[in-house]
């Protein structure tokens, strides 16, 4: 168990598949506008199909928490597939569609939208907010080739780390990996809800994941009550467990 900002989670889960960015661009390409309520938005940047706006009214406050620039023009943007629904990854962790679209009062929004406002980092160095390389500006759920993906718009502060921002803009790095917090995990075979180190015989403390139970049922775990925590630029595909060094504070 670990406690984050006064709320208890069962574990940290890292997406072990490294995604490449679908597109990159600079903040200078965005045009500023305001909604009828006076909120500042950036046009031609949103991930939601048919709604190409990006709300940046909260960036000033986020810049103080993360020690990043409050000026949208200082960012390099990358659109990234954050995770896929209903298809277990190589760690045999599955993000069910019904969990991604579930409205959670603790988050004040649907689960997949919990990406928004979270930090971007490098190699999952996410323990200290002020070490952030930027912030996640948007998240949407899109159906692509029959599967649902959570796609995020990440921003990388070129004033804070110009070398990293330039590499991201030119797609020179390996890719990106997300991290999230979960409250529990459910066995795909018997639906046992595991918390902590107590699991069912199928999962068997994690060693049973990936096996075929009775020769037909794949053993994996459904992630329950997810809170997406970060999107990281990674340059080492093998370092799948880097996030587990994250302390509970």
Summarize the helices and strands and which ones pair or pack.
Blueprint: E1 2-4, E2 7-9, E3 11-14, E4 23-26, E5 31-34, E6 40-43, E7 53-55, H1 59-66, E8 75-84, E9 93-94, H2 97-100, E10 103-104, E11 109-110, E12 119-122, E13 134-144, E14 147-157, H3 162-169, E15 175-187, E16 193-194, E17 212-213, E18 217-218, E19 221-234
Parallel strand pairs: 9-19, 12-19
Antiparallel strand pairs: 1-2, 3-15, 4-8, 5-6, 6-7, 8-14, 10-11, 12-13, 13-14, 15-16, 15-19, 17-18
Beta-strand residue percentage: 35-45%
Extended strand count: 19
Please state the overall shape, judged from the principal axes of the Cα atoms: elongated
Give the mean pLDDT: 86
Radius of gyration: 18 Å
How is the main sheet built? 10 strands, mixed
* Number of H/I helices: 3
Structural class call reads mainly beta
Residue share in helix? under 10%
N-to-C span: 11 Å
* Uncertain spans: 237-249
When the domains are counted, the total is 1
Order of helices and strands: EEEEEEEHEEHEEEEEHEEEEE
């Amino acid at each position: 168990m670990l406690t984050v900002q006064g709320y208890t989670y069962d574990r940290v889960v890292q997406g072990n598949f490294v995604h490449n960015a679908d597109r990159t661009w600079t903040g200078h390409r965005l045009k500023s506008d305001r909604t009828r309520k006076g909120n500042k938005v950036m046009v031609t940047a949103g991930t939601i199909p048919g709604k190409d706006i990006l709300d940046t009214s909260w960036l000033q406050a986020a810049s103080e928490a993360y020690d990043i620039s409050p000026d949208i023009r200082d960012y390099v943007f990358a659109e990234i597939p954050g995770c896929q629904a209903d298809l277990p990854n190589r760690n045999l962790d599955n993000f069910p569609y019904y969990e991604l679209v579930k409205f959670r009062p603790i988050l004040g929004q649907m689960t997949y939208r919990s990406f928004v406002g979270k930090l971007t980092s490098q190699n999952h160095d996410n323990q200290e907010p002020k070490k952030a390389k930027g912030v996640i500006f948007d998240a949407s759920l899109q159906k692509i080739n029959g599967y649902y993906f959570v796609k995020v718009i990440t921003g990388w502060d070129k004033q804070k780390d110009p070398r990293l921002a330039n590499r991201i803009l030119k797609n020179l790095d390996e890719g990106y990996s997300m991290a999230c917090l979960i409250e529990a995990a459910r066995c795909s075979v018997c639906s046992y809800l595991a918390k902590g180190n107590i699991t069912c015989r199928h999962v068997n403390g994690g060693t049973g994941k990936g096996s075929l139970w009775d020769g037909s049922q794949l053993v994996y775990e459904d992630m329950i009550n997810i809170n997406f925590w970060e999107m990281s630029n990674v340059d080492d595909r093998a370092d799948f467990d880097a996030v587990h060094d994250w302390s509970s504070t």
